[in-house]
Amino acid sequence: MKMPAKPPSYGDLLNEIVTSNRMINVMPIAVSPQADRRYWHWDKLRFLTPPAGISLREWWWVIKMPRSAGRTPTPLIDVNDTPFSYTPTDHIVERLHQIDRDASGRIEVSDPLTNPETKKRYIVNSLIEEAITSSQLEGAATTRNVAQNMIRANRAPRDRSERMILNNYKTMQHIAKVKDKALTVDLLLEIQALVCSGTLDDATAAGRFRHANERIDVADNYGNVFHVPPPADALETRVSAMCDFANGKTRRPFIHPVLRSIILHFWLAYDHPFVDGNGRTARALFYWSMLHQGYWLCEFISISEIIRKGPSKYGRAFLYTETDDNDLTYFILYHLNVIHQAVEELHSYVERKAKQLQAIERELRGSSVLNHRQRALVGHALRHPHHRYTIESHRASHTVVYETARKDLMNLAERGLFNKAKIGREWNFTPVPDLEERLREAP
Are 74 and 83 in contact (CB under 8 A)? Predict the structure, then answer.
C-alpha cells in the first residue's frame, strides 16, 4: 500500500483563488449539490476531471469549504495538539439511523438471536469468526477449519498463529463479561494482556504500555513508514483522556454512541500504546464500546471478517484521515459501512439457516426411517439444541407406554442424533451439537 498524496493546503488554495480573482468563477460550483456527492480524498480526486470552468486545485477547495465549515471537533488530538474532527454528512446520518434501528434491539429481531436456547450458538459462531479473522489481519496463518476445530474441541494451540486466535476468542468472551464496566487504564491493559498472552518475544510487554526505547512505527515490509505514534511519555495522559471519552465524560459536543465507538477504534490505533496487539485491542475496544452502549446485536457480528475482504481499504481509511487535516470522516464512513455490511450479513445468515432448518423439517415429515414421534422430537430439538429429554417426558408427550418411549430415544441415540447419559437412575438425552449436519447427511 502506498502513502496517499497529501492534499494542497486549504489556506494556500484560498489565497490563490483570491489573488487571481477566480472567486466569481469558483463560488457557483461551491454551492452546487454536486460539490461533495462523495467524500473523496485528494489522492483519488487528483485523477478525476473537475467541473467545467475550474481547475483541479480549485475543485478541491470547492469540496473542502463545506467540509471545513461543518466539522465537529473531538477530544482526540495529534502529536502537534491539533484536534481530530469529522463532518456529519447525510450518509453518516443515514447509516447511524440504520444501525440504531437494526443493532440496538428496538425492532423485531430474528427469533434465533433472542431465543435463549439458540442464542448461544450464534454468539459462539460470531466469536470464533471474529477471533480468526482479527488474527489473520495481524498475520496469523492458520486455516479457518483448523482454528474452528481447536476452539470447539478445546484443544491447546500448537503454534503462535493458533495462540493468537485462541487469545482473541477468550478476549471477545471477556469483553461480553465486562461490557457494563467503565473503561479504565487497568481494564485496557487487561484486554491487551489477553490478546497477547504467550505470543510475544518479550513476555513482559503483555499488559503494559510501551517504553520510550521501544520504537513501533507503523511501516510495511520495505521500511516505508506510514505512522509514527505519540511518544511513550505522553501515553498515560492520552489514554486517560481516551477513557474519559469512552465513558461519556466529555459530553460537548454531543457525539453519537456509534461514532464514539468508531473514534475509540481509531484513537487506540493512532496512539499505538503497546509493543504488539494494537490492532486486535483496538477492534476489541470497539466491541466493548458498542456493547457498553446497548448495541447488543454487535455480539453476533464480525467486523474483522468484512475488513479482511479488503484490508487495503482499512489501512487507507486511517491514512486518509491523517493526511487530510485530521479529518475522521474518512475512517467513520469506512467503519459505518463495515458495521452495516456485517449486520446485513448476520441477518442473511440467520435467514439462510432458518430456510435450511425448514427444509430439514420438511424432509423429516416425509421420512420413513423415523416414526412420527421421533420426527416430532427431532424437530423440537433442532429449535431447542440445549433441551434435555427423558423417557418419561417423551412418553407423556405422546401418550405411549414406557417401553415404546424408551425404544424411540435409544434408537435416536444409536443413530448418532442424540447423546445419552444416566443421571441417577434416569436416562437423559440431548441433541448432538451438529444435529443439522448429521440430518443433512443421513440417507
Answer: yes
Q: Are residues 163 and 239 in the same domain?
A: yes
Which one-letter amino acid corresponds to residue 367?
A: S
Report whether the peptide linkage leading into residue 83 is cis, meaning its omega lies within 30 degrees of zero: no
- pLDDT, block means (10 residues), the chain with 443 residues: 91 93 86 64 94 92 88 94 94 92 62 60 76 83 82 87 91 93 97 94 93 88 86 96 93 90 97 94 95 88 87 94 96 95 83 77 78 88 85 90 94 93 92 85 67
Same domain, 97 and 242: yes
Grid coordinates in use for 169? 476468542
- Mapped onto helix, strand or coil, the DSSP state of residue 419 is strand
Domain that holds residue 270: 74-350
Residue 148, all three cell numbers: 474452528
8 Å CB contact between 273 and 210: yes
Q: Is residue 377 part of a domain?
A: yes
What total number of domains does the chain contain?
3
The span from the first CA to the last CA of the chain, in angstroms, equals: 51
pTM attached to this predicted model: 0.83
User: Does any domain span residue 356?
Assistant: no
